[in-house]
Structure formats: structure tokens, C-alpha cells
Write a structure and sequence with these properties.
It is a single chain. This protein is of the alpha/beta class and about 325 residues long. The protein has a domain of about 55 residues. The chain contains 12 helices and 12 strands. The strands form 3 sheets. A 6-stranded mixed β-sheet has the order 6-7-8-3-9-10. A 4-stranded antiparallel β-sheet has the order 2-1-4-5, with helices on one face. Strand 7, helix 6 and strand 8 form a beta-alpha-beta unit. Helix 4 crosses helix 5. It is globular.
């Protein structure tokens, strides 16, 4: 069972450069959340703050009753045991084979026998489809396999929170689709709390239960997937639908002249909201909501064609 992450009033800066300020959100226990944002908005910094690698200037991050923004190093060490992290490039040790890479956290943080370690490592490698590749070195396998090996290592201590830092980075669309399905299947199996930083719009539209968007040094919106995919908020609408018209420009924010030139332009209609990706076995995850439930509960009319099997294809 995953655990809740409650973030309140979080602000982080490096010198005079403010990365983001007054970020508040709650990542629900056991759910899949995606954090989006233009490049350079501090998404990876946010992940590092959540795991205590970076201290925020102000605010709190409460996990299991402990504020990791202000707790002792001893308490932080204990809270970190709840986490598994998949880094952008997999962060494999190049001189170790995949088996030893995955076994590394067990050897460092537990006193388990090699027999027990082998059972656990092979179980996790089976989860990510890497059985038979355990003797390969990271340099001998594809980027997608390295990602899966990194995910096996992130899962080896049975974490209650798993952070994914751009898991689709460097992957082609087919491998990204396989990885997305793997993430959904894993969440169904282990029921941990997942937080994914990504730029992939199809991932954001089809995988998570909740979506957040960092923009212009603040959290523009965070909430259920359907809330953001039906939103008329300009920056949310522009980013989630990959549109050129809106406040986001090549340098994150458009200047006054660019915005004036767009004045009066008719925005394209919102695309249909696709069906959320389901586990391979067809059994809904505990946190998965029926299609259209949020829209019905809040009196929102979704775009035409929403929640149909071909809606995801139509938005690619």
C-alpha cells in the first residue's frame, strides 16, 4: 500500500533564481500522478526535494507524519527507505552486470543472505521482463532495457513511493508505450504511490490518475486527469494539447508582442479525452476511476468523442 505525500507552501531557489514558489499539493496514496511542465521549470528539482536531496527554502513535505524538509538526518534516512527512484538514464553501474546492479540496494541496506537476495532480484527482473538478461552489462543492452533494469532496482526494496524522472527520455514511441503499460501493471500489482515527471503528452493523457503542471515558477494546476484534460485554463489547455496558441513560447513565456499577435485567434477545439490505460489483465487498479466520473460529478461536459476506444489514437 502506498503512502500519501503532502506538500505545502514549498519554495526553492538557487541564489537569486527562484525555481518555483508556494507549491502545494497532495499526492494520494497508491495513485499514479504525472508532473508536467516546459523545460527548465524545475520538475527534476521537485523530485529531488521530495526525497530530501535538496532542501526547500520554505514549506513542508510531510510523509508518514514526518516533515522531511526539516527533520533530522536520522529520520530522513528512515523515510528514504519508503522510496524507489528510476533516474532518467537508469543510473546503472557500468562495471556491474544487471543482476548485481539490481541486487546493490539489498546488499547495501539489508542483511539478507545471497540466496534471499537472488530470489528477490529474480522476482523483480521477472516483473520488468528481464529474466535471461541478468548477466549482461549496461553497455550491452538497449536504452529501454536499461530503463527496465533501473526500474527493477527501484523496486527491489519494496518501496511504497516510486519516483520516475522522465522514464520515456531517449525512448522511441513503441518502447514508451511498453513502458507506460509496465508502469500501470506495476501499480496494479504493488499498489505503491507513483509520481512521474515526463514531457510525453500521450503518457500524461492516458496513464495517470492525477496530473500537475509547473509553469512560470508556480504550480499552475494539480488534480484528477479529467479535470486537466477538460480545462480551459490557457496554459493547461495549451500544454496538454500541444498547441502553439497560448502563453507558453520558445523561452517558456511569450512576450507582449507575441501575445498581441495571437489576440482574436480562434482556439482549436479540445480533443477527446482518451480512455485511461488499464492493467494488462483487465482488472481495474484500486485507484482507477470509471471513465467520465469526474466530469459527471462536477457538471463538466467533456469534448465530443471522449472516453471512446479510439480517442487515444485521435490525439496522437
Amino acid at each position: 500500500m502506498g503512502v500519501e505525500i503532502k506538500v505545502d507552501g514549498l519554495t526553492k531557489s538557487f541564489g537569486k533564481q527562484v525555481i518555483w514558489r508556494d507549491v502545494s499539493l497532495t499526492v494520494p496514496a497508491g495513485e499514479i500522478c504525472v508532473m508536467l511542465g516546459p523545460s527548465g521549470t524545475g520538475k527534476s528539482v521537485f523530485l529531488k526535494a521530495l526525497i530530501g536531496l535538496l532542501k526547500p527554502d520554505t514549506g513542508s513535505i510531510v510523509i508518514e507524519g514526518t516533515d522531511i524538509a526539516s527533520c533530522s538526518e536520522k529520520d530522513l534516512y528512515e523515510i528514504r527507505k519508503l522510496f524507489g527512484v528510476l533516474f532518467q538514464d537508469g543510473a546503472m553501474f557500468g562495471s556491474m552486470n544487471l543482476y548485481d546492479n539490481v541486487a546493490f540496494p539489498l546488499r547495501e541496506h539489508t542483511r539478507k543472505s545471497e540466496s534471499d537476495i537472488r530470489d528477490i532480484v529474480m522476482e523483480k527482473m521477472d516483473l520488468v521482463g528481464l529474466v535471461g538478461a541478468e548477466d549482461k552489462l549496461p553497455g550491452e543492452i538497449s536504452g529501454g532495457m536499461r530503463k527496465r533494469a533501473g526500474l527493477a532496482r527501484a523496486l527491489v526494496l519494496d518501496p511504497e513511493i516510486v519516483l520516475f524522472d522522465e522514464p520515456d527520455s531517449g525512448l522511441d514511441p513503441v518502447r514508451t508505450a511498453f513502458l507506460n503499460q509496465l508502469i500501470v501493471d506495476l501499480n496494479a500489482q504493488i499498489d505503491a504511490t507513483f509520481l512521474i515527471v515526463t514531457h510525453d503528452i500521450n503518457t500524461a493523457r492516458t496513464v495517470p490518475d492525477n496530473i500537475g503542471l509547473l509553469y512560470h515558477k508556480h504550480l499552475a494546476m494539480f488534480g484528477p486527469r479529467e479535470m486537466l484534460l477538460s480545462s480551459e485554463e490557457p496554459v493547461v489547455r495549451q500544454f496538454l494539447n500541444a498547441q502553439r496558441v497560448g502563453p507558453i513560447g520558445m523561452s517558456e513565456e511569450k512576450d507582449a508582442n507575441e501575445l498581441a499577435a495571437e489576440a482574436g485567434q480562434e482556439l482549436p477545439p479540445l480533443p477527446p479525452i482518451p480512455m485511461q490505460l488499464e492493467p494488462s489483465n483487465g482488472i481495474p487498479r484500486r485507484s482507477q476511476r470509471p471513465p467520465g466520473e469526474w466530469c459527471r460529478d462536477h457538471g463538466v461536459t467533456p469534448p465530443p468523442g471522449s472516453f471512446q476506444a479510439d480517442a487515444a489514437i485521435a490525439t496522437r
